[in-house]
Design brief:
7-stranded mixed beta sheet; alpha/beta; 12 strands; 5-stranded mixed beta sheet; 9 helices
């Protein structure tokens, strides 16, 4: 039965026109794979200092979305960014993977352009998703956003420090090199008030969706390694996307929160507002 469904899916995708889908790329990535890609990200990091945001208020908001799947229309991602800019407590935003829904540079150029408008008062940080690799777009992600394995440190006016960690899970694995980088990073956990980790692929297989099958979940061994690592280091929040619906779990004292998709086809899309204060809290907002 599953084989028949897969054949039907492939046939359906094959007759879908234009550059929206790269059927071969869904199953055989045209870009480099995780280990090689992470090596490129870390090499870029070595030549560019990590971002530090100084003078933040002791309580601030972060706006998070994922799966924007740009293919021409940018209304909803524009609304999302404007909501963050209009929030006096808004500090920055996150687009957590799957920027593209077509081959070519247009989705990345569009998002980059939105972030360079005069109204773009705050920074936006991104991660790479499976669409950004499978649709032959890795080169364009790299051209516009440079790295998907990196950190952002927020220093507040009272001297607290929060660490935001961004990971590459575009091939449904973080790879050994990236996990080792993460382990070393978390050895410094006691320096930070909060640590928030952001990656595209959802850790939990709670629903089945054929559109996510080629990059649905992490290998089981890696899944347990990550859960232990997050719990052992008291990570404040773990952010995910990919499955196109809202979902929340708490394991080992760590909240795992999945954002909804924010593409133009969604009937009632939403995003996440994360509040960092003495504690980390969050809530969903609809557009």
């Amino acid at each position: 039965m599953k084989t028949k469904h897969l054949i039907l899916l492939t046939a359906t995708l094959a007759i879908t026109s234009c550059n929206r889908l790269d059927v071969t790329g869904m199953f055989f990535s045209s870009g480099t794979h995780t280990e090689d890609r992470v090596a490129q990200w870390l090499e870029w990091n070595d030549q560019h200092p990590a971002t530090v945001i100084n003078g933040a208020p002791d309580q601030y908001n972060i706006y998070v979305c994922s799966d924007i799947h740009l293919e021409g229309n940018t209304d909803r991602i524009s609304q999302f960014l404007q909501h963050e800019y209009a929030d006096p407590s808004g500090l920055f935003s996150i687009v957590n993977g799957d920027l593209a829904n077509e081959s070519g540079p247009r989705p990345f150029r569009q998002l980059d352009s939105l972030l360079r408008l005069p109204s773009a008062t705050d920074t936006c940080f991104v991660t790479i998703g499976n669409h950004d690799i499978y649709f032959d777009c890795q080169q364009y992600f790299q051209q516009y956003f440079h790295t998907s394995t990196y950190t952002v440190t927020v220093q507040t006016v009272s001297g607290a420090k929060d660490l935001f960690v961004f990971l590459d899970s575009g091939n449904a694995t973080h790879g050994q090199r990236q996990l080792q980088w993460l382990r070393q990073l978390l050895q410094q956990r006691d320096q930070y008030r909060h640590v928030v980790v952001s990656t595209h692929t959802c850790l939990f297989r709670t629903s089945y969706n054929y559109s996510t099958t080629p990059a649905a979940n992490l290998p089981e061994e890696e899944y347990y390694q990550l859960l232990d690592l997050m719990s052992d280091h008291n990570v404040s929040l773990f952010l995910m996307g990919h499955f196109h619906h809202k979902e929340e779990h708490t394991l080992g004292g760590v909240p795992y929160v999945m954002t909804d998709n924010l593409n133009e086809q969604k009937d009632q899309p939403s995003y996440l507002v994360v509040t960092c204060a003495n504690k980390v809290s969050y809530h969903y907002e609809e557009i």
